[in-house]
Design brief:
22% strand, alpha/beta, 5-stranded mixed sheet
């Protein structure tokens, strides 16, 4: 079986469509979505419809997906929080009620048995969608110990917007990176393909191109009213976070 790991789409439909075309070219059989589908992007409904139409094996809730559940309860207490809330409201207005209910119901972790191996699908970590799994020696010590104690042989995640395959102790980790915008200096969307044959799992990391400049111009058009989108515009163009 050939499974595509998709993560951190962030409402960028042009990037997602390029990735899905590459998946089709590479003979992908099934899909797993690893979180952060709609928020901080201009086409959340289109991205939702595209992902659910794939009938993924699993859909994981990411930290920014959960932000949308705060639209009726969040009370901004700073200028930054006001700007963040404005983005939440904007995304909420762009989504159907069905999409919001569906995303809210997604789990933060999904274990799957494949042959004799167990794979854990999550956004940040199996324990929190805000955790960061990083190459050995860089993951927070408490988190690394928890990962080391897992029965699973493979943990698949996203959240950091930095693709890679690495180990934490003896546990293998695949981070699919980000489709919506990257943080590793390469502006191209990233995703991962797992080839699973009985108890053997190999991984291919993929980068694809798309009209990033066209999307950046779209973002520029809304950044006056939604200032936080200027940071997304920067990341789309530069492939890294905007300096603070």
């Amino acid at each position: 079986m050939r499974i595509a790991l998709l993560s951190d789409i962030h409402g960028n439909i042009a990037a997602l469509e390029s990735v899905l075309a590459d998946c089709a070219y590479n003979g992908v059989d099934s899909y797993v979505f690893l979180g952060d589908l709609v928020f901080f992007g201009l086409h959340p409904q289109e991205c939702f419809e595209a992902v659910v139409s794939l009938a993924p094996i699993a859909c994981i809730k990411g930290n920014t997906d959960a932000n949308l559940e705060e639209v009726d309860t969040f009370r901004p207490s700073s200028d930054f929080e006001r700007e963040l809330f404005d983005c939440i409201v904007d995304c909420d207005r762009r989504l159907s009620n069905e999409a919001k209910r569906t995303i809210a119901g997604w789990p933060i972790v999904h274990p799957i048995i494949s042959g004799v191996s167990e794979i854990i699908y999550c956004h940040g970590s199996p324990y929190s969608f805000t955790d960061k799994l990083l190459p050995e020696g860089n993951t927070e010590e408490r988190l690394a110990k928890l990962i080391a104690g897992e029965r699973a042989t493979l943990v698949c995640c996203g959240h950091t917007h930095i693709p890679g395959e690495f180990h934490i102790g003896h546990k293998r980790v695949v981070n699919a990176g980000s489709i919506g915008y990257s943080f590793d200096g390469d502006r191209r969307p990233s995703y991962a393909i797992l080839d699973i044959e009985e108890d053997q799992i190999s991984c291919i990391m993929r980068r694809v191109d798309y009209d990033w400049n066209g999307y950046r111009k779209e973002l520029s058009g809304v950044a006056t009213d939604l200032p936080l989108f200027s940071s997304i515009e920067y990341a789309v163009g530069e492939g890294r976070p905007k300096p603070r």
